[in-house]
Structure formats: C-alpha cells, structure tokens
Amino acid sequence: MIKIVITDDHRMFRESLRKILTIENVAEVIAEASNGIELLELLDEYHPQIILMDISMPGMDGIEATKKAIEKQPDVKVLTLSSFGDEKYYFSMVEAGAKGFVLKSAGIVELKNAIAEIAKGGSWFSTELIQKVITNLNAKPKKKIVSTLSERELEILKLICESLTNEQIAKKINISFDTVKWHRANILDKTACTNTAGLVIYAIRNKLIEI
Fold first, then answer.
1. If you count Cβ atoms within 10 Å of the first and of the last residue's Cβ in the chain, which end, N or C, has fewer?
2. Residues 116-139: what's their mean pLDDT?
3. Do 40 and 114 share a structural domain?
4. Domain boundary among 138, 163, 197
C-alpha cells in the first residue's frame, strides 16, 4: 500500500480526502499537516512515498515545503493538489521538485491514476489544468524561443509529454532503450530541467508541443 501524507490547510478537505483514499483502497494516509512547517516536523517521524501538497498555505506554502521536504527525504514524491487560480505557482512548484498536478475538483479515478503513476516514478498533469496554463501563456506576449533541440530530441520530448516511458518510446520510434536514455539525458541538459515534470512545463512554456 502506498504511504501518503496529506498537506492542506483545510481540515475538512484533509479528512474527506483521507476517507476517500482509505475507502477506495488507493493508499494509506499515515499523517496529515496543515502547512509546510507541520509537514517538516512530521517528516522527522514519518517516511511517506508521496506527499499530497496544497500550494497556498499559511506559515509555509507548498513551494517552500516541497523544496525542504525533498531535502529531508530525497526519495519522497510530491503531487500538487491545485485549485483554479494557482496557475502562477505551477512553474515554481515544478522547479521545487513536484512531480505533477491534480485539480482539487478532480474525481477519485484521476487522483488514483495520478498517485499510481507518480509512485512508480512517472509524472501526472491534469489535462484541464494544462489547458488553463496554456491559455494563460498564450495571453501574454513573449519572444519567440529558438529551440536547441534536434528533430529527434523534439520527437522524444513530445512522447515524454504524452507520458510514455523510455521503453515505450524505444518501441514506438524503433530505436534502442539505451539510445532513448541518452537522448533524454541530452534533453534534460539542454533545457536545464531536472525531471519529467520540468520537461513538460518547459515544452508548454516554450511552445515546443501542442496539447
């Protein structure tokens, strides 16, 4: 069973989410925190696989809490619980180390899928939420970005953004698994990203993919 800590400043939301995750047998909620400060104290005792993290919280917000939580427990994965209006914080959350985003209004099926995907090392972005980010980016005038990625790297980046694994990418474009790993490493280096979540945001921000 996946062990989870819920971090959100609304007690009713935390308790409801705990009940849903337990009843649906999605995960074991081992602790709850109302802000980043409480979370960091809990991490002295608990070792969750995933932290469900709110962004806007008093005392210490989700951005700072994500950074510090990963510093304390490098293997922990953060899944952001997002509300509409939080778009301005998304890039900061990814830079802090978050693996993905789920809207608080999402159904249990999406949350279950997101938790499962992130637990096995992947990332998750709510389609509705990504469309909101794209809309906001398109509303702002910006200079054209000249990509330094090769055609093959752009092809692989697009497949990464479609949540394909290295093995799936290798089969789809008929190259070796090791070649995909090599290309992925080059893409991370050229984009200055540290994980898949960062690559997705980079691709959207620089309009390298269409969603």
1. N
2. 70
3. yes
4. 138
- How far apart CA 127 and CA 200 sit, in angstroms, is 12
Judge whether 87 lies within some domain: yes
Across the chain, mean pLDDT equals: 85
Give the position of tokens 């849903």. 20
| Number of domains the chain is built from | 2
Alpha carbon distance 181, 106 (integer Å):
33
Distance CA 123, CA 78 (A): 10
Q: Say how far apart CA 175 and CA 186 lie, in whole Å.
A: 16
Token output for 93 = 């959350």
pLDDT band at 130 (very low <50, low <70, confident <90, very high): low
> At residue 143, does pLDDT exceed 50?
no
CA distances from 179 to 138, 175, 186 (A): 34, 7, 11
Question: What is the DSSP annotation of 127-149?
Answer: HHHHHHHHHHHHTS--PPP----
Residue 84 clears pLDDT 70, i.e. is over it: no
pLDDT in tens, 178-190: 999 999 999 988 8
Instruction: Give me the domain span that covers residue 31.
Output: 3-138
Distance between CA 78 and CA 88 in Å, rounded? Answer: 18
Q: Where are the alpha helices (DSSP H) in 54-176?
A: 62-72, 90-96, 108-119, 127-138, 151-161, 166-173
For residue 72, give the CATH number of its domain: 3.40.50.2300
